[in-house]
Amino acid sequence: MSPTPGIAASAQGGEHEQMAADMHGYLLATRLQYFLTVTRHGSIRSAAAALGVAPSSISRVIAQFEAELGASLFERIARRLVLTAAGKVLRDHAHAGALELERAQALIRDMQGLRHGSITIGVVESVARGMLPALLSQFWASAPDVNVDIKVLGSEQILAAIQDGACDLGVAFDAPHDPARLDRLDVVSLPIGVIMSPRHHLARRKRLRMADLAAERILGPDTGLTINNLLHAGQEAEPVASPRMATNSIALMADLAARGAGIAFQTRIGVEHELREKTLVFVPFHASGIKPRALGVYVRTGLLLPAAPLLLSNLISDAFRRLAPLP
């Protein structure tokens, strides 16, 4: 018996759809393999050698992928291929399989399209008055129509806001690493130093200890700043003179220190402008019980960041890596 024409046509259509789906999956897998290999090796020639294919094949596949996405995935820096912001989005989703790859493509298209929407970010004051303005300029160069709601808070408040969903991401100091509540996307270690006027008698010292500060006028942080806890631990081991003031304002401490009213404890973050203008100097500080500060980027555990927050978090991570190591 001959098959019914309608059923035969339906069967053939189903076969064609399956073949198309299989081909689509194969192309995605090939593009993903080539992309990740170039990412690892930093050059098309090295990736081609690793895969045993012609460099022109990889170049063609990457070019087709970029054309479909409407975004460049790599840029050449010092003879090495480095991921663009769009490339980083793709890399961060690539290992989650075909469905996540499709989502990554949609996110990249969103980045290249209207760039609408909004982000809420919580940052400590030192980040707000230090690295954040330059980061926002970079961010808006790629996402000009995304609104950014910036909340300047204490570190504990930032972590609470992330968990409550009030902030998409946050940049905070010395947060406990608790994967059950927060994912830490990146972290940088920042030694503590003493900031003071260039005219201060200690300004030319290579490093300072608690004993060197016994007679100094201290412009201290109050309990609203997490650095207070670190300093308190160090002062228990090596007492120092009582602060002449306590404040939760880094700007006020920096201004008073520049005027010669005293010295303050701080990382370089938050006083970059004053250090560049040489209205303040930074002298590394060493004392038992005082460890470098950990500045981290945090999101709620399990949260898959949309394109715009992911781009901003990548820019923050890049800024972390550019921070010069301190003596």
Automatic annotation (TrEMBL):
The keyword Chaperone does not apply. InterPro entries: HTH-type_LysR_regulators, LysR_HTH_N, LysR_subst-bd, WH-like_DNA-bd_sf, WH_DNA-bd_sf. GO terms for cellular component: cytosol. Residues 27-84 form the HTH lysR-type domain. Pfam families: HTH_1 (PF00126), LysR_substrate (PF03466). One of its GO terms (molecular function) is DNA binding. The keyword Repeat does not apply. Keywords: DNA-binding, Transcription, Transcription regulation. Belongs to the LysR transcriptional regulatory family. This is LysR family transcriptional regulator. It comes from Komagataeibacter melaceti.
